Amino acid sequence: MKYLSFIIAFVLMLTSCTSEYFSSPTYNRVSIVGNLSVPFYNEQSRAVNSGYLEDGSIISFYSSGGLFADNLLLTYNNGRWNPPTELQWSTEPSDANITAYYPQISEQEFSFYENDGRLKDFLFTTCNIKYGNPVVLQFNHLFSQLVFQVTPILNRRLKNISFTPSISISSIDFKKVQLTYTADNLHTTTFTKQESGIYTLIVPPASDMSVDITLETSDGNYTAQVTTSTFQQGHQYNYHLKSDYTCGISTAEDFIAFTYLINGKEYAGRTLEEFGSAVNGRMVYYLLNDIHFTSEDCNRLQSIGHYDPQNLNSMGFKDCLDGQNFSLYNLQLSSKEDMDSYALFSFVDTTGVIKNLNLINASFTGNHTCKYEALLIGRNNGTITGCHIKGNNTFTEVTDNKVGGMVGINRGYIINCSSENIEFQHSNGKAGGIVYSNYGKILNCYTSGCNFLHTISGAGICYTMEPQSEMKNCYAYKTSGYSPKKKYGSLANITNHSIIECGLYCDDNVKAVYSNYQTTPKQIYSYDASTLQTEDGTPAIDILNNWIENNAILYPQHTFYNWVTGDIPPITLQQP
Is the peptide bond before 165 cis (omega within 30 degrees of 0)? Predict the structure, then answer.
């Protein structure tokens, strides 16, 4: 670089005191430098990360005027482009019109296209150099680049994707960099599925060009098109591809079919593949939008999974249902027979996951003997995360069944979940706002506005905390009613050799835990429902978020949602 600066400075100094062109043969030798490669220009990303052609790179060099070359091959080494023999300026002073291409070009057998139809990515440079001056090259892309991002759901089903531009290149004037196009001999480029979902295509820099796209998927072929556009030389264009049809559950009829099929029953020729796809070896089923249920729809629903206490005929949900933050409205649940546990999902097994699902304005009416009952999951051995019960909900039961708002009995994880505004009509029994009996872990959850007035006793979060179970970083907000005899705990009713850590509650004249046995709750705070601050003035929301910051590392397999201010309830969870 110092050598180049010296040469340029020396030339400028001489030109300032001599004629415009050199006439002495002393300066006929040609110096060619410069290996900078400019990336494709993307208007959406102004970041420029230039590259450089490496030592050993070979270019095709053309020049006319005071310097003549016709596809002379130059090799880059030690900071300059070296010809096979010394290259000199002509004795007649004249500017040089220079063009160069990388990679090198064999004009006799030249083709812009690979055997598989792909257009090669060429770099080029063109410039006018004053007679005798050093030649400095800077390379740009000769063609345009299209980058296609296929959505994950579609890409999972993809086998191959093909692109056919409506224009191809038939010839080029190498010296003038003039491309000739044709629409008669088109080239198709085919890619097998890439896990990244990103497919990059080089196309001619042409006006009035479209690109036809064919996608071969596991459930058939689809077509798409990049509409007629003008593509500029050296520019990058980005596109997103998604299917109009995406596998998933979008109607009440779909959800009814899903409840039959997931239980191993046939339903009107439908298949589970309509509702989900395999991700890392496990089926994931998707809710595609909010679904509103009628009474007739609810009568046709099947409870998903069932549990046999003798383990002779148990069948739990072992896959993943991703609600994608959509909601099921107006579910009316009622057990159809005596069973161990009953809910929308009666039994979720250890590998099962229910996430990002809302139940709004749900109701439960108990008609049979079920040991554990709930709105979402009767017996959970898996993971529930990002699930919420909202709106106005009722739970009516006349037997002494054990009732949880979201879960009956938990032996897995309940994390980032909430129960709001559930009215428990259970005069002969007991209830917990989120779960009745916990043998697992309840983390980062809350309840708000639940009514336990018509129960024998209740608890805001969990009724019974069993040995070795955990409840951490949970809070209860304004229970709307509880037993006149105050057999109620804002967080838990009964604990037995369990762990309760970082809990907040605001109910008046009520304990956080009604009855402790061999349990010492830690970091339990009473806060004011109006100011949302503890007695020492600490904001409740800070306590909750600080716990996550200090303890999330203990649960590396889980993501904790942060707490944010809301309306009612005043502190809610925000999904990342």
Answer: no
Amino acid at 544: L
Question: CATH code at 52?
Answer: 2.60.40.2620
Model pTM score? 0.61
Segment 276-294 mean pLDDT:
91
The verdict on 71 and 203 lying in the same domain is no
Q: If you average pLDDT over residues 350-371, what whole number do you get?
A: 94
Provide the number of structural domains found in the chain.
Answer: 3
**Tens digit of each residue's pLDDT (9 = 90 or more) over 123-141:** 999 999 999 999 999 999 9
> Which two structure tokens, joined as six digits, stand for 295?
């009474």
pLDDT band, residue 1 (cuts 50/70/90): very low
Residue 524: which H helix or E strand, with range?
strand 522-526
Are 421 and 449 in contact by the 8 Å Cβ rule? The answer is yes
pLDDT in tens, 412-426: 999 999 999 999 998
Q: How far apart are CA 84 and CA 69, in angstroms?
A: 12
d(CA 413, CA 253): 30
- CB of 525 closer than 8 Å to CB of 503: yes
CB 198: neighbour CB atoms within 10 A? 13
Under 8 Å between Cβ of 254 and 245:
no
Q: Please list the helix, strand and coil fractions of the chain in percent, rounded to the nearest 5, in that order.
A: 10, 50, 40
Residues 23-66: tens digit of each pLDDT? 444 457 899 999 999 999 987 655 556 789 999 999 999 999 99
Shared-domain flag, residues 351 and 282: yes
Residues 296 and 304: their CA atoms lie apart, in Å, by 18
For the chain, count helices (H), then strands (E).
5, 48
Beta strand spans in 153-205 (E): 158-165, 168-173, 178-182, 189-192, 198-203
Phi, psi of 204 (to 5 degrees): -65, 145
Instruction: State the greatest distance between any 2 C-alpha atoms of the chain, in Å, as a whole number.
Output: 113
User: Which has the closest alpha carbon to 391: 292, 263, 526?
Assistant: 292
Q: Which residue range(s) make up the domain with 107?
A: 21-141
Structure tokens at 174: 């190498």
* Pick from 69, 562, 143, 365: nearest CA to 573: 562
Tokens of 163: 């692109």
Range 241-245 average pLDDT: 73
Residue 246: CB atoms within 10 Å: 14
Does residue 532 lie within any of the structural domains? yes
